[in-house]
User: Fold this.
Amino acid sequence: MNSTRGILRDSCSTGVAVLVLMALLPGRNVIGQEQSDALEHFQREIVMRLTGGAEISPGVRLSDRTSPENRAVVRDYLASLLDSLGFDPQRQPYRENGENVYALLPATLQSDEYIVLGAHFDSARQSPGANDDATGCAAVLGAASYLVSLQERSRNIYFVLFDEEERGLVGSRAFAGMLQEEELTVVAVHTIDQMGWDADGDQAIELELPYTGALELYREAAKVSGYSSQLHVTEEPGSDHSAFRRLGMPAVGLTEEYRNGDTTPHIHRPGDTWDTVDFDYLAAVTRLIQSAMVILTGPVSP
Assistant:
């Protein structure tokens, strides 16, 4: 911080096998173990490749996502994943060695309203950044892989992987500025930062400075997804959601219990490795986020 089935597809640019997930049917409270396992596998692959637990490209393992060279490799990998999921990945170069990766999922019905779901892909220096914030990237991609399968969407959705959060929310400020310059109607921004630590096993999350209606949205999403854990509200401003709020856009940050004492002790340290991540927790929260996005983009055909 500062599905109903899985289809195996090959990523032509990285050779990474990508599970395209349909992990949650709207209106269902329970998903099968097979679908849950598929989501966890998908997200584990992403986190491992972003953090050096596996090769991100042939012969390349990353120790961190700090240097311009490493972040360039990450951008290519993330763009490849988005392409494999059926998106048209875009880049937003906003300064030298600073570039966001994003994709637009257009509404299937006429709409001039936009939702943003994002997470940052860079890490602190000398840290693999598994929890902070490879888990956020895996959550965004997990949600994207489901939402692209919906037959009807009443709002447009941007899925964004921000650069340079660790340098002062630089990438998210640039993306928010682009939306403002294009005079888009942004109705909700949800950013995810650190969603892989749950030592007490309660699967609780925090909503950071939620916009009006965000808490009620996630309460409804919890009913749909079968999520029964605590939704805490905090006043934490220190992540990408703040870059949008400062421009008047309704935003909320999503995180593990950062303020409530159940957060990774490895933040910004070499110990923030993939094997410290609770992937069951990450998948459960991803299903919650999927449900929230379905509600925001309804109506959806059954």
Summary: The chain has one domain: 6-297. Residues 163 and 171 are 5 Å apart (CA to CA). The two ends are 37 Å apart (CA to CA).
